[in-house]
Design brief:
Strand content: under 5%
Helix content: 40-55%
Number of helices: 4
Shape: globular
Radius of gyration: 14 Å
Structural class: mainly alpha
Order of helices and strands: HHHH
Length: 83
């Protein structure tokens, strides 16, 4: 996932992977906010990989943390998280 194509390309790892041809724009399937709103599907299989690099958008960081936490609680094997 990407926050924005411009922001994603600025991240050295993704920008370098694009320049090296390891990935192309088809690998960048949507922005993290769209995933959290259900507008773009997130991971569909265990083999899918989601990459999220925060570029300082605290609201998205909080929403992402909440989504991960809620999804974790919904899974029986992770329902009892000891903080």
């Amino acid at each position: 996932m990407r926050m924005s194509l411009t922001g994603a390309v600025e991240i050295q790892g993704i920008g370098q992977a694009l320049r090296d041809g390891v990935v192309d724009e088809t690998h960048l399937r949507g922005e993290i906010g769209a995933v959290l709103l259900g507008q773009v599907p997130g991971r569909q299989t265990a083999a899918d990989i989601t990459v999220y690099k925060s570029l300082g958008h605290i609201a998205q960081d909080i929403a992402t943390a909440e989504a991960v936490y809620q999804n974790t609680l919904a899974r029986p094997e992770f329902a009892d998280v000891a903080w």
